[in-house]
Every structure is written in structure tokens, then in C-alpha cells.
Design brief:
It is a single chain. The protein is an alpha/beta fold and 303 residues long. 39% of the residues lie in helices and 18% in strands. It is globular and about 55 Å long. The N and C termini lie far apart (42 Å).
Amino acid sequence: MSGPDRRSWLAGLIGQGVGPSLTPEMHEREAERQGLRYVYKVIEQAGGVVDEAHLEHLLAAAVELGYDGLNITHPVKQAMVPLVDETAPAVQAIGALNTIIIRDGRTTGHNTDVTGFKRSFTEGLPDADRDRVVLLGAGGAGTAVAHALVDLGVRRLLVVDLDHERAARLAVSLDDRSTVIEIVQPTAGWLRAAVGMATGLVNASPMGMAAHPGTPVPAELLRPGLWVADIVYRPLHTTLLDAAAAAGCTVLTGAGMAVHQAADAFELITGRPADRAAMLRDFDELVATETSRSRNPTEKRNG
């Protein structure tokens, strides 16, 4: 039931290390603006092993408990695909999902990472040269970004990943598309050559996150005329983006993708349009608050 008689909505997030996620707050704030009763629960998966039987149990429990939708994140985006009843075409192509809609006891998998990155790119880098783009990372998020970049008209995509088999699977998932896909060896020499020929660079690897500090590309490889996007949003201004801005590159932070994928998921779950401008403001406020607290860890939070 999704009409005017609908009384409440229940959603959740399944993954590892999801406690600090901003997605629950963004969903609940948007729902409150629309006058909806909306509860978003975080379902933490401890440990580093993906247990398919446990995931199947969680999904069945969510259906039984009346959940309307789930967001799915690292490291179970791919493991959840065979567990849902149906999948959207993007999920079939990518082999990963990040949203599950539950209706009348049936589950459907979607991938809003693709649509989220596409919208962020279109808004943030509308005039970017899409001739030759280097993509760092071929995991679930990297594959979603690769499909988005192909949809955006990138003519040649150079994929860099330490796991050659994973990079090869990404390339196979794009076999029927017109974009030329090249797998680049993750060595200093190959990376230098790839970036040197590129018009754009996207980091879809974990490098740059708080738990994985640093940059995947040496600063000396960055130059004016190259655009650089990073899907990491914690921190928002990664070491890579800071170095890129200093080198004269046009940069795109992970904020737009984070917000638009959340807005797309909200719309799928509720069937209502999201106020994306307001959600972007929410995101900025949440990040600013988080940054302030990290700089003042002894600050009392109760006044």
C-alpha cells in the first residue's frame, strides 16, 4: 500500500561498518519534510566473511517484519543478487545491487549507484571531455560507475584494479556497449601512461577513505585540463581531490553521488519524489557537524 492511507514506512541498511552512515538520517529527514512516518534501521554485519545463508535469513526476516525496502552496501552488494526474486536490468548487467524493494512479499533488486553517479556527473561536470577516462577500482561500486560512464558517452575507458580477474569481469559486463574498454596494469609505469593520455580520472577504490588514507595517484601525474572525480565522501575532500585542485584540475566530490543514490532509493521505497536540493543541504549540514566533532572530540554534545 503506497497511497494516501499509508501510515508508515520501514527501511534498513545492511552492510559492515554501517553505523556512521549518513543515509538513514538523509532518508528520515526527507520523509519528515514530506510528513511521512519513516523509520530507518541500521543492520550491522560483524566480521569480514559474507555468509549467504545469514543474508538469506535477514532478507526473509525483513519481508516477514514488513520492511518496505533495504539499502545494501559493502561487502554484500554482489552476494545479495541471487537472493532477490527479481532484478532490474542494471543489476543484471552489473552483478551488484544496493537497494531492495519489498512489495507484497516479493523482493526486487535495484542499483542506484549507477543513477546516482550519472546525475552527480551531469550536474557537476556537464562539459567534461569524455574521450579517455581512467577508472580506479573494479569492485561493486567501480562496476556501477563504469556502466554510468558508458551511459554518459565515454569513448574509451581504462580500468585499473589490483585484481585482474575482477577488472576482466567488469570489461565483460560491458561487452555489448560501444565504449572501448582497456585493462591497465596497476604498476607505476602503466598508471603514468594511462593518466598521461586521459581526459578524466575517477577513483572508485577505497583509497582515500578514513580507513584507507592516501591517494591512488601520485600528485605529479595530475595536470590542468584533467578532470578528477572521487566517489569517496568520508572525507569529502580526499587527498586525491586536494592534490588535483592544487594541480589545476576540475574536481567532483563524492557528495553528489551519495545524495542522489540516497534520493533514488527513497523514491523507489516510497514512490514519492525526493527534494534533492534539500537533501544536498542536509548532507552538507551532517558532514559539517561530523567534521566539527572530529576536530573537537572533547566537546560536550549536550550543551
